[in-house]
Design brief:
Elements (H helix, E strand, L loop, with lengths): L1 H26 L3 E11 L2 H34 L10 H12 L12 H18 L16 E5 L3 E3 L3 E4 L3 E5 L10 E7 L2 E11 L8 E6 L5 E3 L4 E2 L4 H17 L6 H35 L2 E5 L3 H4 L6 H7 L1 H15 L2 E5 L25 E3 L6 E3 H20 L7 E3 L1 H12 L1
Parallel strand pairs: 8-11, 11-12, 12-15
Antiparallel strand pairs: 1-5, 1-7, 2-6, 3-4, 4-5, 6-7, 8-9, 9-10, 13-14
């Protein structure tokens, strides 16, 4: 019986290794959707077309939002005679029958513009009913103008794209040679941008090292390797200039030419601040995802941290949630693992040398001093090393190979510390 059991054990191990290699092959040879966004090079005639389409999309959104709110109010006041909440198709049928016949300027734009706006409105209500977002709001002219086109969309050459009704649009950048089904055109200050999605294959760069990343306010990220990324802090840099430009803007006569010029200047500075912050985050997340096999971060409660009004401005300037969002899809793209440690794991209080936990640690203490072994280290660096050790112990003890190692509980790490000593 013993030789047979050994043969069965060997076959089972061989089958398990085959399944593991197959799962890893499938993990690194799948398609994922990426977004591409670039600025448009337009003339005055094309700018007028874009403004008309934005107006149609805004009008359709506001009309649909007012109608759906009336239906919800009627259902709340009359529980016995409720009206079925309309779908995006129902809203578009009513729009064609009631609104388009009275507003001829609807026919100057693509028919997909109001249709896509109503579909976006229905998705907003769906997120509201699922309690993942708030109630949709009415849109105002000149604020976040955007619209979506679908149909005959073709990329012509390197920097030209053809869209319905508007025609051929030029871009400053080279376009990927794909066939997009739809495009979204949006405005930031006085510039227009076009964006679309395309499929790409994930890569396997073959990195195996583990890095812990501790996010903060004083420094954007502290790596377990000792590197410190200060962060752009673009809002802090341009805060005084922005305050001065806003003061000049609100002292202009509303609607005048100088008021419009001041509005554009304020919007340009806001765009500059956002672009500097986004550029820093993209460079950092790409560096981490490309050069490390496993990236370990904490599950920070950013919305709860923003409740502290003394630190909310500095926290918002770092854009911590955007960092995690970018790192999530880039780790999937480059074949690396992203480990998100539970937010209650005391990474700052544990000594990275002897694993002894301190009872209390105030924010003013920037240097970690262990009372047990006498080890001294920068507070953020000690936390980053603890995050790296926690993920390394988890993978070595449990044999995890999945990239979805999230929400590790604090109790698991106390057990893993004992397991690693065996």
């Amino acid at each position: 019986m013993r030789p047979i059991s050994r043969v069965l054990l060997a076959e089972s191990l061989l089958l398990a290794s085959f399944r593991l290699s197959l799962s890893v092959y499938m993990l690194y040879n799948v398609n994922m959707l990426l977004g591409f966004k670039t600025e448009l090079k337009i003339n005055n005639k094309q700018r007028t077309h874009l403004l008309k389409h934005s107006g149609v999309a805004r009008h359709a959104w506001n009309w649909g939002l007012a109608l759906t709110k009336q239906i919800l109010d009627h259902n709340k006041a009359n529980p016995g005679s409720k009206i079925k909440f309309p779908s995006a198709i129902d809203l578009h049928k009513w729009l064609v029958a009631l609104v388009k016949s009275e507003n001829e300027w609807y026919y100057e734009c693509s028919k997909s513009t109001p249709q896509q706006a109503l579909m976006a409105l229905r998705e907003s209500w769906k997120r509201c009913f699922n309690k993942t977002a708030g109630v949709p709001k009415f849109k105002k002219k000149g604020r976040r103008d955007s619209f979506t086109l679908e149909g005959t969309v073709k990329i012509l050459g390197n920097n030209k794209i053809q869209v319905p009704v508007i025609g051929v649009l030029k871009t400053y950048e080279r376009l990927p040679q794909i066939k997009p089904k739809s495009v979204t055109i949006s405005r930031q200050a006085d510039r227009w941008f076009i964006s679309f999605r395309f499929e790409t294959k994930t890569q396997d760069l073959g990195n195996a090292d583990v890095v812990g990343v501790d996010l903060g306010v004083k420094a954007l990220a502290t790596l377990s390797t000792g590197e410190v990324i200060i962060g752009a802090k673009s809002y802090k840099k341009y805060e005084a200039k922005l305050s001065r430009m806003q003061w000049l803007h609100r002292h202009k006569i509303i609607g005048s030419a100088n008021w419009k010029k001041a509005s554009v200047q304020v919007a340009r500075l806001h765009r500059k601040i956002a672009n500097i912050r986004s550029c820093t985050l993209h460079k950092l997340t790409t560096l981490l995802a490309k050069n490390h096999g496993t990236v370990v971060i904490e599950d920070l409660n950013v919305s709860g941290m923003m409740a502290n009004h003394k630190m909310a401005k500095a926290i918002a300037d770092m854009s911590l949630f955007e960092f995690r969002r970018q790192l999530t899809y880039k780790c999937e793209l480059y074949g690396s693992k992203l480990v998100v440690v539970d937010r209650w794991f005391p990474s700052s209080k544990i000594c990275s040398q002897c694993r002894t936990k301190k009872k209390s640690l105030s924010l003013q203490e920037r240097v970690f001093k262990c009372e047990h072994c006498g080890f001294q280290c920068d507070r953020d660096l000690n936390a980053a090393v603890n995050l790296k050790n926690a993920a390394s112990h988890a993978v070595s003890a449990c044999g995890l190979v999945s990239a979805d190692t999230t929400r590790m509980k604090q109790e698991d790490f106390s057990l893993l510390a004992n397991v690693s000593k065996l």
